[in-house]
Amino acid sequence: RTAAATRRASGTALTLLHGSNLGTCAGIARDLGTDGEEHGFAPTVASLDQYTERLAGSKGPLVIVAASYNGRPTDDAADFVASLENLAPGSLTGLRYAVLGVGDRNWAATYQRIPTLIDERLTAAGAVPLLERGSADASGDFGGVVDQWTEDLWKALLEEYGEATAGEAVGPAPEAEGEGLYELEDTSESVRGGLAERHGVQPMEVLEAYELVDTDHELGRSKRFLRLRLPEGVTYRTADHLAVLPSNPEALVQRVANRFGLDLDRTVRLRARRRSRGALPVDRPLTLRRLLTDFVELQDAATQEQVAVLAEHTACPPEKQPLTAFATADPETFREQVTVAGLSVLDLLERYRACELPFERFLELLPVLRPRHYSISSSAAARPGEADLMVSLLAAPHRSGEGTFRGIASHFLQTVDAGDVIQARVLPCSESFRLPEDTSVPVILVSAGTGLAPFRGAVLDRHHAGSTGTLLCYFGCDHPDVDFLHREEFAAAEAAGAVSMRPTFMHAPENGARFVQERIARESEEVWSVLEAGGRVYICGDGRRMAPAVREAFMAIYRERTGASDEQAVAWLAALVGSGRYVEDVWAG
Ligand SMILES: Cc1cc2nc3c(=O)[nH]c(=O)nc-3n(C[C@H](O)[C@H](O)[C@H](O)COP(=O)(O)OP(=O)(O)OC[C@H]3O[C@@H](n4cnc5c(N)ncnc54)[C@H](O)[C@@H]3O)c2cc1C
Ligand SMILES: Cc1cc2nc3c(=O)[nH]c(=O)nc-3n(C[C@H](O)[C@H](O)[C@H](O)COP(=O)(O)O)c2cc1C
Q1: Where exactly are the structural domains of the chain?
Q2: How close is the Cα of 257 to the center of ligand 2, in Å?
Q3: Given ligand 1 and candidates 241, 394, 584, 585, which is best to mutate, with the most ligand atoms within 8 Å of its CB?
Q4: What is the rounded distance in angstroms from the CA atom of residue 467 to the CA atom of residue 436?
Q5: Which residue in 18, 278, 491, 535 has its CB near the most CB atoms, within 10 A?
Q6: CATH class of domain segment(s) 249-365
Q7: Nearest bound ligand to CA 241?
Q8: Which ligand is nearest to the CA of 413?
Q9: Which residues form the FAD-binding FR-type domain (predicted)?
Q10: Which of 372, 415, 433, 583 to mutate to test the pocket of ligand 1 (most atoms within 8 A of CB)?
Q11: b vs e for 98-124, b when ≥16 Cβ sit within 10 Å of the residue's Cβ?
Q12: What is d(CA 51, CA 55) in angstroms, rounded to the nearest whole number?
C-alpha cells in the first residue's frame, strides 16, 4: 500500500492555486481540492492572482497548477507572475510547495514557460519543493502524467503532513489493484454521455455554412464559413474563441472495428475501476459506435508509454522487436519516427497485427475527445447572438507516407450544414488581444489564412461603429481569385474608411511581396510611423512560420530606423510584447 493509502492529515490547510484561461488547470486544482478533503486536508482553491503578494502569509503547503499562453501567464495569473519579480531572497523560507505545469509541446519555444518560471522564483525566494515540478503535455500522455504526478503529490504531502491511520485506508479497493482501468459490461439501456458537461459545451444551431475558397482552382484549399446561433443568454466579445467538440468520422471508427473485430452496434456500459483524470466521462450505456465516434481521440500520435504497452502485448518476435525498439528509443529518435510522423496507436496496431492488445486496454490508452478552438470571426456589436467561424480543412499527405491525413474537427466542420446542431462553448480570448477601444490609437493587424478570423470581427466592429481610425490589415493568402476571404465585405469596410487592406498573394506577388512580412518590410516607413505614434500590433494565425517571420520583420525595421544592434532589437520587441503593444494569438499549424 502507498503512503497515500495509509496516512491521513488532520485538518492541515492546503492552498491550491491555478493559472488557467480555458479551465484545464482550474479543473485539476478543483479535483485536487476534492481529493485533499478525502485525505484529511482543509483545501482552499483560488486563482494565482488572488494570492498576489500573499504567499508569505499562506498557511500550510501550497500547490500550483498553471498554464502558459504564447509564453505569457493566463489572465488569472498575470499580476501574480509579475509580482514574482519582487520576491526577495529568503522571503518564502519555510514554505513548502509543488508546481504542476500544464502545457503543449506544439508551442515548442515557450513550452511550460510560466510554470517553470514560478517554480524557479519560489525556490529562489527560499521555498522548498515537495516534489519535482510536473510537466503535463496536452499533446502527449496528458492524463497519465497528471495521474502519476497527483499520486506522487499525495504521497509527498501525506509523508510530510499526515499521520499513520489505524482505520480504513483511503485508496483503491485492494481487489482492483493490478487490473486495467476499464471493464466492459453488456447492457441494453438507452444511450447518453457526460462529455458535453465535462467540456462545458452546449448545442448551437448552424444557421449558414458555405465554402469561402474557390476549390475548383488548383490552388484552392478549403476554408469553410459557419454561422451559429448562440443559445439564450450566451454572449461573446469580438475576438473570443469558440471551442467546438467534434465527432470522429465513420471511416476512422470503422478502422477500429475492423482491427478489433467489433460489432459497433453492441451496447455496453463502461465502468472505470478507479478514478483517473484520463478516464472517459461515460457512466451510461452506449453503443461502441457512439463511444468511438463521440468520446475518444483516435488519431493522436502515440506516446512512448503507449508504444511500450503495445510491445508488452506482442509475442511475435518480428513485430515485438520494432515496437520494443520504438518504446526504448531515445526521446529524439522516438519524436522523429513516431510523433512527427503522426503515427497513432491505431496506425501501429494496423501495422503490427500480431499485437494482442485487448480492446479495453486500447480504450484506456485513448485520450478523451478534445474540443478544438476557433477564433470567432464576427463582430459582437454588429451581430450579437450569432457567431461566425472560418475553418481551414486540415488535409494533407500523411506524414508517415501512407494515405491522407484529415484533421478531426476541421473535417467534422466540413460535414455540417445549415440546420445541424453542434456542441460548442464560447471562451474569452486573452484580454491583451482585444483592440484598444480608443480608435485614435493606430493599429496594425497581421495574419495569414484563417488567422484573419478575429480581425474580420475587429474590422466589422469598426465599420459598424463608423470609425475611421488608422487600421492596417496585412493578410496573407495564395491568390486574389482563390482565397481572399470575405473580399467584398472587406472592400466595403475599406470604402467606408474603417480599414486599409494590405493583402499579399503567395502565388501572385505584387511588387515582389509574397508574404506579409515582405509587404511590412516594403511599407516600413508607414509601419514605423504607426509604432512611433504609440500604435499596437496584433498577429494571428500560423505560429510556426508566419509569427517568427513577422517578429523578424519588425525587428529589422527597428534596426534600420535606429541603428540598433540585433540584441537591442530583441529587447525592444520584448518590451513591446511586455507592454501589450505587440500581441500574438497564434497556433501551431
Ligand atoms: C486560439 C486558437 C484559435 C484558432 N482559430 C482557428 C480558426 O479561426 N480557424 C481555423 O481553421 N483553425 C483555427 N485554429 C486551429 C484549430 O483549433 C485546429 O487546430 C485545426 O482546425 C486542426 O484541428 P483538427 O481537429 O482538424 O486536427 P487534429 O485532428 O487535431 O489534428 C492535428 C494534429 O495532427 C497532426 N498533423 C497535422 N498534419 C499532419 C499530417 N499531414 N500527417 C500526420 N499528422 C499531421 C498535427 O501535428 C496535430 O498534432 C485555432 C487554434 C487555436 C489554438
Ligand atoms: C493560444 C494558445 C497559446 C498557448 N501557448 C502555450 C505556450 O506558450 N506554452 C505552453 O506550454 N503551452 C501553451 N499552450 C497550451 C496551453 O498551456 C494548454 O492548452 C493548457 O491545457 C491550457 O490550460 P487552461 O485550460 O487551464 O487554460 C497554448 C494554448 C493556446 C490555446
Answers
A1: 3-164, 202-243+371-427, 249-365, 431-587
A2: 33
A3: 394
A4: 13
A5: 18
A6: mainly alpha
A7: 1
A8: 1
A9: 199-436
A10: 372
A11: bbbbbbbeebeebbbbbbbbbbebbee
A12: 6
Amino acid type, 453? A
Q: Which three cell numbers, joined as nine digits, stand for 142?
A: 496528458
Residue 363 Cβ < 6 Å to ligand 1? no
State the DSSP code for 104.
Answer: -
User: Ligand nearest 409 Cα, by number?
Assistant: 1
Residue type, 447: S
Q: Do domains 3-164 and 202-243+371-427 have the same CATH topology?
A: no
Which atom of ligand 2 lies at the shortest distance from residue 66's CA? 26
Q: How far is the CA of 412 from the centre of ligand 1 (A)?
A: 12
pLDDT digit string (tens) for the chain, length 589 residues = 344 458 999 999 999 999 998 888 998 999 899 899 999 999 999 999 999 999 988 889 999 999 999 889 999 999 999 999 999 999 999 999 999 999 998 787 789 999 999 999 999 999 999 999 999 998 877 888 898 999 999 999 999 999 988 654 444 444 556 778 887 765 433 333 467 877 888 899 999 999 999 999 999 999 999 999 999 999 999 999 999 999 999 999 999 999 999 999 999 988 888 777 778 888 788 899 999 999 999 999 999 999 999 999 999 999 999 999 999 999 999 999 999 999 999 999 999 999 999 999 999 999 989 999 999 999 999 999 999 999 999 999 999 998 999 999 999 999 999 999 999 999 988 888 999 999 999 999 999 999 999 999 999 999 999 999 999 999 999 999 999 999 999 999 999 999 999 999 999 999 999 999 999 999 999 999 999 999 999 999 998 999 999 999 999 999 999 999 999 999 999 999 999 999 998 887 6
CATH dotted code for 431-587:
3.40.50.80
* Architecture category of domain 202-243+371-427 in CATH: Beta Barrel (2.40)
Ligand with an atom nearest the CA of residue 452: 1
**CA-closest candidate to residue 519, choices 506, 530, 505, 504:** 504
Residue type, 217: H
Second CATH level (architecture) for the domain 3-164? 3-Layer(aba) Sandwich (3.40)
Is the CB of residue 24 below 6 angstroms from any atom belonging to ligand 2?
A: yes
Gap from CA of 551 to ligand 2 centroid (Å): 20
Specify whether the CB–CB gap between 587 and 374 falls below 8 A: no
Give me the interface pTM, i.e. the ipTM. Answer: 0.87
